[in-house]
């Protein structure tokens, strides 16, 4: 079971609908067009379109399975004083005094550029259940980092 925000669920549904209603018909048209060009054994366009169709069908199947197992979280039932899924946090790297703001989200919603980190990331795992003011050591690929949790909110 995958817990996610309503926003993440809606984005996933929209992405799946786009793949099924727009991308898949375009790939099928490309296959039909390539098939009309003659000998399929040496037809590069046909083989490329079939490969693309296979990739697309695989992505569609994956997204469908994610949606089948998805559960939208009711934010009103979450604790707002400890770090958990959908928490908005502000942390400070104690080594360089750099502050960062993140929202902890489901891995399918993670996007570092928009400040959303996966709940399965090393930083989020180390912060789960912590309250504002606590300090944590996080083992990341670059080594050990020490963070202070400045604030937690929903």
Automatic annotation (TrEMBL):
Recorded superkingdom:
Bacteria
Instruction: Write one Pfam family the protein is assigned to.
Output: GreA_GreB
Report whether Zinc shows up as a keyword of the record.
no
The chain positions of domain Transcription elongation factor GreA/GreB C-terminal read: 80-152
**Transcription elongation factor GreA/GreB N-terminal domain spans which residues?**
3-72
Name of the protein this chain belongs to: Transcription elongation factor GreA
Q: Which PROSITE patterns does the entry link to?
A: GREAB_2 (PS00830)
Q: Look up the record and give one Gene Ontology term from the biological process aspect.
A: DNA-templated transcription elongation
| Task of the protein | Necessary for efficient RNA polymerase transcription elongation past template-encoded arresting sites. The arresting sites in DNA have the property of trapping a certain fraction of elongating RNA polymerases that pass through, resulting in locked ternary complexes. Cleavage of the nascent transcript by cleavage factors such as GreA or GreB allows the resumption of elongation from the new 3'terminus. GreA releases sequences of 2 to 3 nucleotides.
Q: Which family does the entry's similarity section mention?
A: Belongs to the GreA/GreB family.
**Any one GO MF annotation of this record:** translation elongation factor activity
Stored InterPro entries: GreA/GreB_C_sf, TF_GreA/GreB_CS, Tscrpt_elong_fac_GreA, Tscrpt_elong_fac_GreA/B, Tscrpt_elong_fac_GreA/B_C, Tscrpt_elong_fac_GreA/B_fam, Tscrpt_elong_fac_GreA/B_N, Tscrpt_elong_fac_GreA/B_N_sf
Q: Which residues form the signal peptide?
A: none
- Keyword presence, Transmembrane helix: no
Keywords recorded for this protein, A-Z: DNA-binding, Elongation factor, Protein biosynthesis, Transcription, Transcription regulation
